[in-house]
Every structure is written in C-alpha cells, then in structure tokens.
Design brief:
alpha+beta; OB fold (Dihydrolipoamide Acetyltransferase, E2P); three-stranded antiparallel beta sheet; 5 helices; 7 strands; 25% helix; elongated
C-alpha cells in the first residue's frame, strides 16, 4: 500500500500551513484523494509535486492575494520605514492620514516592504473607540 499522509503530515513535509495544503488539494493543485471528510496524500506524489508559490504584491492585487477574517482592513501606501535592530516602524498613508505600525524588521524584509509599496493594514482589536467633537 502507498505511504499515505494526512493533511497535517503533508503540511509538515511541504513546510506549509495545514489550511493551505487543504485548500490546494480542494483546488486540484496538489495530488490528493478525499476519504470521508479528510484529505490523504501519497508521499511519493508530494515529493515530486511542485507547490505553487505564494503570489507577491507585484504579481497580484493585494486584496486578491489575501484571505483574512479581520474586517478592519485599510489600503494605503508606505511613506516611511525606520528599522532599529529587531523592530521596524512602518508609516502607512491612508487617504490624508498616517497609520504607524510596529513590526519586526525581519517581517518587513520578508514582505519586501519599501517606501512606495502598496500595503494592507489589518487592524484586529477587541476594542475600537469612535470620537467626535462636541456639538458637531
């Protein structure tokens, strides 16, 4: 019998997130068979399979490359980056206002964040406050 792998084992082998492996199988981009509610993968087929690379922002519109549950998503352009050791301050212009995000320097490098790049600021918080000037 072939050496069958679960989605989790296939994800470990391919160094991908298990949800991505399941999605690729569903889309027919990874060789797999459905057994009940589970995906099974033949190790021999996976080793030879070319896993599709994640698209970069230059290859695809940002909104088309990201699927995320957070509803507070703001599109903007990077107007400033200041890296200092482990952390980087990224200033994103959204309309006529700036949003400042503190991320790791390695994440900024990995994502290719440079001044002028279009990015998506995703805000996930348990509390958001709305303010308004009195009498207006």
């Amino acid at each position: 019998m072939d050496d069958l792998l679960t989605a989790r084992e296939a994800a470990t082998l391919l160094r991908l997130h298990v949800k991505r492996v399941q999605r690729l199988a569903r889309e027919g981009k990874l060789p797999a068979v459905r057994y009940g509610r589970k995906w099974l993968f033949r190790r021999q087929e996976l080793v030879g399979a070319q896993t599709p690379a994640r698209p970069t922002a230059d290859q695809e519109e940002i909104s088309g490359a990201i699927e995320i549950s957070a509803r507070n998503q703001l599109r903007g352009r990077v107007v400033g980056i200041r890296a200092d050791g482990v952390m980087a301050e990224v200033v994103v212009r959204i309309g006529d206002q700036d949003l400042v995000a503190i991320i790791t320097s390695s994440s900024a490098q990995r994502l290719g964040i440079v001044v002028g790049a279009e990015v998506l600021a995703v805000i996930k918080a348990t509390e958001v406050m709305v303010a308004k000037a009195a009498g207006r």
